[in-house]
Amino acid sequence: MKSAHDYDAIWRGSGTTLWRAVYAYAGGRRDVADDAVAEAFARVMARGAEVREPLPYLYRVAFRVASAELARSGKEAAEMPEIAMADPSQNGLPDLMHALKELTPAQRAAIYLHYRADMPVREVAHLTGTSVASVKVHLMRGRRRLAQLLGEEDDG
Amino acid sequence: MTERWRKKLEGLDGASPSDDVFERAKQGPMHSDEALPGPRMSTRVVTIVVAFLVFALAISAFAIPALRMGNTSAGGGTAVLVPLWPTQDADQLDQLQSDAAVGNADWALSPEAVAKRFAQDVMGWQSPVVKPNVHSFCAFGAEPDSLSTPASPVACADLPVGGWSAPGGVPLEDPAAAPSSGAGKLSTLSYEIYPCDTDACLVDLGPEIVQVYQPLRRGDGAIWTVLQAKSPRITLSVLPAQIVHNGSTVSAGFLTNDVPTLAYSSCGSAAASSAFHAPSGSDAKGIALDVSLSGGANCTDQEPGYVWAATAKTALGTETGQIGADPLQGQPPSSPGLLGLTAVPVTMVSASLPAETTPPKSPPLGLGGSPSMLAVAMTTYTDPFGGWTIDVPQDWTTKVIQTSGSGTQGAQFMGENMSIQVSTQTAPSGSPPPGLTLPATDDSQFPLVANDLLTNVEGGLGGTFWGDGQTFSVTVLSPNLPEPLPEPERSILMHMIGSISFKPWTVGEIRNQWVAIPTPTGDVSWITVEGGLYMLFKTPDGYKLYGAISCGGKPPRKTSSRADGFAVLDCPDGTSWEMDAGGASGGDGSGEAVWNDPPPQWPVVTAHDGTLIAWVLPGVFPPGTGGSSPAPG
Q: Where would you tag: which of B136, B297, B451, B552 has the fewest CB atoms within 10 A of its CB?
């Protein structure tokens, strides 16, 4: 099929952000994030011009693949995942990942995309195929829960 | 503080995809389309039902008043049913039939292919997906005979075949060829159309629905056309084949963050409006558009036309009120095309509505002063549907009004010089009553006072009151109106209106899908409504009811309330969840308790006798809400 999009460019520009969103969604499951993102890219490349907006498609398929894998394996509540990082002691990531695991996958994804990937709420909603109101609810609840788990005040 | 959370999440930047992720992608998909989880059918159906409810609640704030802006069907004219698409011209339909017969338009012989082509040519979707739809709808507001056979034509009741052969219309040439399932009725098929495969097209409110029928004759070898299209986000004030007069008003309600447009077109006359307003307290948007038919040289007094309301990323109407690009003429907006479309064929009549049907701007009411002593023997009429009662002169005749499905229920009381109709609009089981909004309106204060209730309307007096949670209309007709009513009609009317009453409620009692609930003693209560567990909050703005709540479909371990206004749920798996009246909620972990996020809100009103009554849809739990979904996503 004729390629309608520059997938290499999409991978370079958005692949890592997508992967980290799925990684957060999956509660730190690197294997799930790798598989889901690879599958999403494979599917969008296979469909070519049929997919007019590759990025929302990638996000939605990746989240669905990750969701299916999490449901299938049932391992989300198991042991702490392997965490890929250079120096955990400097950024408190283990604590953060412990806390993130207490959130729902949708809350985790929304929090990462909005607060870390700097996406406006509307864009998060567009990419994840949900409403702006739903994203706001995920953010509010996730933020409040994170603050509680990390022993901090949620000041908005 | 966004920056604070941004900083805190910085650690995630230390995580990166494995080196081979993109290379693996280039090898191709590992899963088939079917292996990916899409929305479950049951979940989607529930989503559609709930979405419809929420939409109806929101939209009624605009749509119901808008319907009153102009009676588009009153006055002269003969309803003519013509297709919406691909053409409304009889000669072109014949040509399409001829082309199809010789293999030049095979698509027109397949109802599914017609729906798909509509999705491509009108909606502007390049690769649409078409599926049979079980939620069929009919023209003229008729009810489908059956909803259980999505692969078969659905017969619509009370639609006479061949009854729309007026000039300009397309007669059904072979009424005798009606399918056995619906002889003498219009048979249609309905399809859901999606802009892409449903794995990637997550549908919040349900899909676009396209209804097709065979306009020339029935059976194999006859062409199919689109009768109407309906978006769950858009409602129109006109129905297929409805007569729309010059000078009347059409309107549409939208539930969207995108750009809405309302337009009509008929025999060279066309207009569009993308201006909208949102009623206070509602997310719904509405557009009203006055119909102005120029009546060109080639136009007759009555012409086929269509009215459509669409949402898109950009406005489809121009600043001068014209249609910028008409999707029904094959001019959909560029990618991603239309986001929603509700469109119906209508009959446009160049004559204006009769002048006398235009209500005067101000009284006289025809009522005035206090009633004189009533010297007329009365009897009490009890409504067989709602149980309300009214005093009626003994020598008057009474006609009970009942239409099936979504229609009118009530009664008309007729004397020699005056008739009074008291009626309410009903909805099919499982659908909200027309006019129901959030927050809902409390019942009226009884006894009603005719002078306060009634105002001048078309040809008489009219008014609206609330009883048992429902809105009732009163219409008074008399040859004396709008001049003041003479005695004894004046006194009879005031007595009859003042005698309208409703039965007291008992907690747990159900009437017209409303159920009486106990009045709470505190600001936060857990109550059981029709077998479901709900949270009831008492606020300065009235009562708010949320639910049903459960622990993944199981009963909770404990329910309680806190002094800070939160209702608290504890589940058997150890997880807990809480919510306040404003909708702020949260739970710990990903266990049973958090699956309640966010629960739907249901209307609660104070009935005429002070009892609280609620309207809920038992057993409905949208995905991720209400505790019945086994897993999010």
A: B297
